[in-house]
């Protein structure tokens, strides 16, 4: 071996040793911090999206001050107002008219005036009523106008108003007083003196217009756990319709399958040994049914979602942009999440996408359960969207946004961190192909999606509202139900209405139905509804005419009128249904967006029911109508307490008008039947309990728009897939530690500012 060779070998050995030393020294060393790109940037649209922005706390306060000084009436803070008082029930954004907004967004029109919609309860009038005012212009109000008659055709009767927190407090006081009239019975049945029983509201509140009598179901109060699983068998009917709280009464009492005139009557029957009593022990914290406390110590950590180069979306006020998408977001205190001016690649696809209502309809052999039809918009889907738990409700590194509202108070409230935005890697290819013939290659694209999420806690249930925006140009809307099931006391033939899930607990069957408004503007405002489906036709094969073949063919149809486009729930519907533009793509097909529904809804309330018209939107899995400014929502917060004379009846929207080349709205219902089972304890899981729909481009583009994604991957057999130039997957970014802000949670503080729906 010559000297040169020895020196070369020595140099190689030293280099190898140095590399090994570097590796060993780097072991255990924390990686550097991931770069951060703050999601907030200057808005390139010049603040146009602010035309849809929810009112700020300062604006809400300004409206309250204006109303207090300009109505000439004594206004009591709704947090302490009696039914006989006047009060401001709520204030929120008055969304401007679409034509006015589009002139501003797309032309040279002026910015629409910023206005508020205020709902007032007038109990201190000769004819008590609910009145709605538009107040403006903001931020310095100078006028108000009564829009109640224009919106609803007349004044809103006072009995239709939603029940306030103060009204529930007064009902609770009445129930507590009445319970004291049966002390021996309560001690024997429930180990209770009445003060540790929690009443839960039902709804609606009677059987005819003008009624305001509510069944309240009593449960053992259980600290640190859901009381919904611990019914004691006692239910009371409270008449709270009078403006004078002192005149409210207990009208009926139910216990273990029997009805009584009042609590004193029940006590008398008990003392005479004429009552069958089921003795229920007071739940113990360590063994209570439905406890969510962990049963084991934490294990190893699961996967962590993070962005190695910072978030790829940008948030500017109420607008978020992501890989060609532009979405304006907001939250209605009553109906929940809503989105406006949804654009992809600069073109508006959807003018408005908004949740309208969530219905939960129950069955039971107890009076409270059998009469319950919750319309959650009346309670406040957006109002009760509380703070999200970082790392569980949403990814730890998601962006969290505060929402503000003014309901049942003169002071604005904030649900901090109650909406989250994040990019989600579905761990699934959006598209891919491995070619094993002719030429050998692989091509694909990861499925990453922008997700905007809120979660509403409405009494016992938690609804997870997801709105997702895909790189294929599709919009996905999905809702999952979780939380506690509602229950009744198990007696008699209770299992005809659900399943036994505890010693005395019946998990009651129920329907979940949700309704959405989708104002699609596909390549312009004027669209037509087109359907496609399949058929078979028996024909002779053309090459010899000796045999027959069942040839598959397309059935195409253009729907001309609203009645044709109203598809009843659970009835057959064309598999392809699209909003079509009069313009064509490169291949001569109308530029369209397809509506694809994923739902397994239960049966709708029979149309013979006197309250069905209040939820007549539930008749249809899909109904397409001409858009009208006077038909902004499919329901009303007033429908809950007077479903027999609904303030808004969606069925009236469908009057067989033409829908060809018109500005159209799709009204979509999704839902499922839930028959509770043992695995719903402690909580219903989201697995299998999700429904929703897609808005998918259908010949809108000339090809799949995701081909332009910078995340695309392609390599052939002639390339080295291990090199960065051929395959970006071969060169992941250097390992880095994501920026994880300290875990904080203020949801319980938010809760202290407003009574939960139906809570006493």
What do you see in this structure?
- With 760 residues, the protein is mainly beta.
- The chain is 13% helix and 37% strand.
- The chain has 10 helices and 34 strands.
- Strand 23 and strand 24 form a beta hairpin.
* Low-pLDDT segments, ≥5 res: 5-28
First and last CA, distance = 94 Å
Mean pLDDT score: 92
- Rg computed from alpha carbons, rounded to a whole number of angstroms: 30 Å
Largest sheet: 26 strands, antiparallel
From the spread of the alpha carbons, the general shape counts as globular
How much beta, percentage-wise?
Answer: 35-45%
Helix share bin: 10-25%
Q: Specify the structural class.
A: mainly beta
Number of strands: 34
Count of helical regions: 10
Oligomeric state of the chains?
A: single chain
Essential attributes:
26-stranded antiparallel beta sheet; five-stranded antiparallel beta sheet
List the SSEs and their pairings.
Blueprint: H1 3-26, H2 57-70, E1 86-94, H3 98-106, E2 115-122, E3 129-136, E4 143-146, H4 148-152, E5 156-157, H5 165-179, H6 183-190, E6 197-201, E7 213-220, E8 231-239, E9 249-255, E10 258-260, H7 263-271, E11 314-316, E12 319-322, E13 325-332, E14 336-344, E15 347-362, H8 367-370, E16 373-375, H9 376-379, E17 399-407, E18 413-437, E19 439-458, E20 461-470, E21 475-483, E22 487-489, E23 498-502, E24 505-508, E25 510-520, E26 526-540, E27 548-559, E28 566-568, E29 576-584, E30 590-598, E31 620-626, E32 662-674, E33 690-698, E34 713-716, H10 747-752
């Amino acid at each position: 071996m010559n000297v040169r060779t020895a020196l070369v070998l020595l140099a190689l050995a030293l280099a190898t040793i140095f590399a090994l030393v570097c590796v060993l020294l780097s072991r255990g060393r924390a990686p550097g911090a991931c770069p951060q790109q703050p999601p907030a940037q200057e808005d390139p649209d010049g603040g146009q999206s602010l035309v849809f922005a929810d009112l700020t706390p300062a604006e809400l306060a300004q409206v309250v001050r204006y109303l207090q000084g300009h109505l000439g009436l004594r206004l009591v803070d709704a947090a302490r107002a009696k039914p006989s008082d006047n009060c401001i029930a709520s204030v929120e954004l008055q969304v401007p008219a679409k034509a006015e907004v589009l002139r501003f967004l797309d032309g040279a029109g002026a910015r629409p005036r910023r206005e508020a919609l205020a709902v007032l309860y007038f109990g201190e009038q000769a004819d008590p009523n609910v009145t709605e005012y538009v107040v403006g212009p903001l931020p310095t109000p100078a006028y108000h106008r009564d829009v109640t008659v224009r919106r609803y055709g007349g004044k809103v009767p006072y009995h239709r108003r939603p029940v306030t927190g103060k009204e529930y407090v007064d009902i609770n006081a009445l129930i507590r007083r009445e319970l004291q009239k049966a002390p021996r019975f309560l001690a024997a049945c429930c180990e209770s003196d009445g003060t540790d029983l929690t009443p839960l509201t039902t709804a609606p509140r009677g059987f005819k217009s003008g009624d305001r009598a509510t069944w309240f179901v009593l449960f053992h109060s259980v600290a640190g756990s859901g009381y919904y699983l611990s019914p004691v068998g006692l239910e009371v009917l409270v008449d709270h319709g009078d403006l004078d709280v002192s005149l409210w009464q207990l009208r009926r009492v139910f216990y273990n399958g029997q009805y009584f005139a009042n609590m004193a009557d029940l006590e008398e029957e008990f003392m005479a040994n004429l009552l069958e009593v089921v003795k229920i022990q007071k739940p113990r914290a360590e063994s209570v049914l439905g406890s969510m406390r962990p049963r084991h110590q934490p294990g190893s950590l699961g996967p962590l979602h993070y962005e190695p180069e910072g978030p790829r979306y940008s948030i500017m006020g109420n607008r978020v942009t992501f890989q060609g998408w532009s979405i304006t977001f907001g939250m209605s205190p009553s109906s929940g999440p809503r989105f406006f001016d949804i654009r992809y690649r600069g073109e508006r696809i959807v003018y408005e996408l908004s949740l309208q209502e969530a219905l939960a309809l129950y069955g039971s052999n107890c009076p409270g359960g059998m009469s319950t039809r919750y319309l959650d918009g009346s309670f406040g889907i957006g109002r009760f969207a509380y703070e999200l738990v970082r790392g569980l409700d949403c990814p730890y590194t998601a962006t969290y946004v505060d929402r503000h509202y003014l309901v049942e108070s003169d002071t604005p409230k904030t649900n901090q961190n109650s909406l989250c935005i994040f990019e989600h890697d579905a761990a699934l290819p959006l598209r891919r192909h491995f070619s094993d013939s002719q030429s050998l290659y692989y091509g694909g694209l990861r499925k990453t999606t922008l997700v905007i999420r809120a979660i509403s806690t409405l009494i016992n249930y938690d609804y997870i509202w997801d709105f997702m925006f895909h790189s294929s140009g599709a919009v996905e809307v999905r809702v999952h139900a979780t939380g506690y099931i509602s229950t009744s006391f198990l007696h008699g033939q209770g299992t005809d209405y659900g399943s036994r899930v505890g010693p005395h607990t019946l998990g009651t069957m129920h329907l979940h139905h949700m309704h959405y408004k989708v104002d699609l503007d596909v390549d312009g405002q004027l669209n037509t509804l087109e359907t496609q489906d399949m058929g078979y036709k028996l024909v002779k094969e053309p090459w010899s005419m000796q045999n027959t073949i069942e040839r598959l063919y397309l059935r195409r149809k253009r729907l001309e009128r609203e009645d044709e486009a109203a598809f009843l729930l659970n009835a057959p519907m064309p598999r392809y249904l699209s909003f079509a533009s009069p313009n064509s793509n490169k291949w001569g097909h109308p530029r369209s967006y397809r509506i694809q529904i994923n739902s397994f809804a239960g049966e709708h309330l029979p149309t013979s029911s006197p309250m069905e018209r209040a939820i007549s939107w539930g008749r249809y899995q899909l109904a397409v109508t001409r858009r009208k400014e006077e038909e902004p929502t499919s329901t009303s917060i007033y429908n809950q307490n007077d479903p027999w004379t609904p303030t808004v009846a969606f069925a009236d929207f469908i009057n067989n008008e033409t829908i060809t080349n018109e500005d159209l709205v799709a009204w979509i219902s999704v839902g499922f039947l839930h028959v509770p089972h043992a695995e719903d304890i402690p909580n219903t899981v989201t697995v299998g309990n999700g429904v929703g729909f897609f808005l998918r481009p259908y010949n809108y583009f000339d090809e799949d728009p995701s081909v332009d994604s910078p995340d695309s991957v392609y390599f052939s057999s002639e390339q080295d897939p291990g090199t960065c130039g051929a395959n970006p997957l071969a060169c992941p970014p250097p390992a880095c530690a994501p920026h994880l802000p300290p875990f904080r949670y203020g949801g319980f503080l938010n809760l202290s500012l407003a009574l939960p729906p139906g809570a006493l």
